[in-house]
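quick one, 181 residues, struct below
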Amino acid sequence: METLFSMLRVIIKPILLGGCLLFGSVALAEDNAVDNIKTVYIYNFLSFIQWPEHKSLSAEYRLCALADQALVDKLTAVVQDEQMNGRSLIVVPYSYLSEAENCHLIYLQESALLEADSLVDFDQPGTLLIGDADGFVSGGMGMVGFETRGRKVRVAMNLTRLQEAGFKVSSKLLRVVRIER
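---
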């Protein structure tokens, strides 16, 4: 009987360990896939959103990110050597919203929104605020929000905030997002 338990332990232990490793790597792969989707969305927003005139005059698009280094690296890889309307794209990482200056857009990863109170006082005209915390758009904090359910990423836009800030959003983009007013 004891040898049967020993044999089962030898067989079951690696199976359980393998299962834990497999599901752990699936969760990690899922996080990576979601981050990849978000970075591509951010890049594509540049094509489908028109900035106010005063922001359109700068020589480059500054994509500012309050996010973990992995997401900053992915966003940098997506925009590397790319140009939009004849202007280069640069990704600038920040630790605090109060440090971010001269940004065309600011992406606030959910963990960065601990500082969300500063959004109330945030005043950078012509800066697109993108975030992924629950209620980022519906709560009136941001203009564009990512809503993640499993591996699905949907985009929500606060059309009122976008229009008040002088942004013009392509009708093509509006067809594929959830609109808040």
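The chain is about 45% helix and 25% strand.
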